[in-house]
Amino acid sequence: YLGAFVHSVSLQELEICPCGAIGVDEEGVIRFVERDVDGDTGRVYAKHEQWKGASVVRIQGKGFFFPGFIDTHTHAPQHPNTGLFGQTTLLSWLTTYTFPLEASLSSLPTAHRIYSNFVSRTLSHGTTTCAYYATIHVPATNLLASLCLARGQRALVGRVCMTTDMSPDYYRDASVASALRDSQASIDYIRAIDPHGAIVRPVVTPRFAPSCSTECLAALGALAHSTDSFIQTHISENTGEIALVRDLFPASDSYAAVYDAAHLLTPRTILAHAVHLSAAERKLVASRGAKIAHCPASNTALTSGCAPVRELLDAGLTIGLGTDVSGGFSPSILEECRQAIWASRFRAMCDGDAAKLTTGEVLYLATRGGAEVVGLEDKVGGFEVGMEWDAQMVRLGEVPVPVGLMGGDESEHEGDAADVDIAELANRGVDAPQTEPFRNGPVDV
Ligand code: GUN
Ligand code: FE
Fold first, then answer.
1. Is the pLDDT assigned to residue 426 strictly greater than 60?
2. Domain extent for 206
3. Which of 171, 183, 230, 298 could form a disulfide with 203 if both were Cys (CB 3.0 to 4.6 A apart)?
4. Closest of 237, 225, 234 to residue 205, by C-alpha
5. Into how many domains does the chain fold?
6. Greater confidence, 396 or 65?
7. Measured from the CA of 328, which atom of ligand 1 is nearest?
């Protein structure tokens, strides 16, 4: 692959290589990464004789390669509700909008429509790896895993567990025993369709502490251990939720302690939100090696709060970004990057300038950070020898420019905006060129 590439080297360093070459073998594994390549002469081949005759993809001047985005937390069944919040906050939003929609996925044709659309949608936004919550329904959960496998999207797919009367009668596990049985059935299915977990892997998914009894949480901790599975759940998203957890689990010191007592805090645990964790909870989560999915769009939409990402990073926590559809209003991790920057700037108004996240930092969270959260840091999130070629191509230079605004002979330009001096257009009092029509329109599920 010849052309520009951009990727995060560390939280502090975003590498921008204007003319590179990445050699990818037939298995999709990166075998060399060259910077400073002459695209015309192909000088790189002198150094890599054995690659003579390899097929070449050239993108010089058209855009750049960037690692595929990693969405560390989203709810596939909630896609049709994107943007619906009214005046609700988390607990009323769940009962008003979320549970009724999720219950409708007892119908497999409905699940197929929603899930195939959502997988297409996340892929269209460059998400090559995604941690999905499904619903309590085993057939629909298994279908989501099959769709991810068929589309080649790396995924963690979790059947949601919810046994308490926090959930309505019409959408609840019948018992802890049946929740366990159904979770095991979904794990078995996913392991059967992808035995090595190359693309899809199961994830044990207690919805959140209020949805599960102490017995249920402990049983799910044991299930994750016995099946060697990832775990995902929500933590400390909203102050009303935290008060509810305090009431429901009076013997526990904190929300994090509830999960810890059930052996649910492990190096393969993804905790969504962590907006209001105490210093002691941060320390506990970090000491267990559990990871955080930061979901700023959702936290703003449901008025949950602004997660203190700088403090979480300083506490040594590993963080990725999550769209949290439909608490979050977009399936795009790039949008989540913007929202992470904005949320950090709201924090900065109280905490000081150190709270501000940079563009480089949020792009790191969207790729390398997310890869660590889902346990794929050796495979995806950056361009290194030995890692998988898991990339998106970002196209540039295809912005249509209104006729009459370009200098010189317009026939030479043929609509290519790369030569247009935007500063000059601004000086002439003309809006910058528009991008292509916004494709993220109403969802046709
Ligand atoms: N907490 C429990 N369930 C949910 C959910 O579906 N979305 C969000 N954002 N938080 C939750
Ligand atoms: Fe969520």
1. no
2. 69-373
3. 230
4. 234
5. 2
6. 65
7. 9
